[in-house]
Amino acid sequence: MGPEPLALATHETGDWCIRFLLISLVVTPARWVLDWPRAMQVRRMIGLAALGYALVHLALYIGNENLRLWHVVLEIVKRPYLSIGFTALIGLAVLGWTSTDTALRRLGREWKPLHKLVYPIIALGILHFYIQSKINVSEPVLMTGFFLFLLLWRVVPSRWRALPWPLFAMAPLAAAGAAGLEYLWYALATNLPAAEIFKANFDLEFEIRPAVWVLVAGLAAAAISGVWWGLRQVFRGSPNLAKSQRIHE
């Protein structure tokens, strides 16, 4: 695992926490686009997996600091990226605590607005990742692009959410957003040539940039959705959007 296995494990668990959170955001679009209501049954498990990785991430960090709890507390207070990450962890713990059926019944209408905090929590987690990564922010940029893609889907009018066409428009928008934020990061937070890094998005002779991967993944998702939608029309006849909306409400 390298010369510092504990530090590496700390980073990996943090990465997987954000990955699982992003996967949890995929569930709702999958329910609509794939006409798969049962997808919602796995969202809670995915969210709890993200919380589990976050807790292990914190435990490994404490272990890497030789279990000096007071030192860890001071570091969290003193270092902004640790403060941001810990804030995200607290928020995620609250969502995990209130994810049970009992909590859902007790909170009633307040449950859904509370769990919309997952969006700022993910944003904080990605920001924590940016600051911790410092120079090479390729993976945070990739996660940013996927996050933007999933957020864009959520602003699509409900009558279009089951259709594949919005996904084709969302892919370049998310990729552009990822490339733009990558440029801003390198321009404002580092001494690296941000303009040259931005231009690399259009030069495929070298390493493929994260924004390009976001574009490819988004278009692939749109294509798969389009094929699935087409097959459904073949077997079901003309689309019935009203029925589709009733199913997904």
TrEMBL record:
The chain crosses the membrane at residues 16-34, 46-63, 83-104, 116-131, 137-155, 167-188, 208-231. Coiled coil: none annotated. The keyword Transport applies. Its main location: membrane. GO terms for cellular component: plasma membrane. It is a multi-pass membrane protein. One of its GO terms (molecular function) is FMN binding. Keywords: Iron, Membrane, Transmembrane, Transmembrane helix, Transport. Residues 18-125 form the Ferric oxidoreductase domain. InterPro entries: Fe3_Rdtase_TM_dom (IPR013130), MsrQ-like (IPR022837). It is found in: Membrane. PANTHER family: PROTEIN-METHIONINE-SULFOXIDE REDUCTASE HEME-BINDING SUBUNIT MSRQ. This is Ferric reductase-like transmembrane domain-containing protein. It comes from Roseomonas indoligenes.
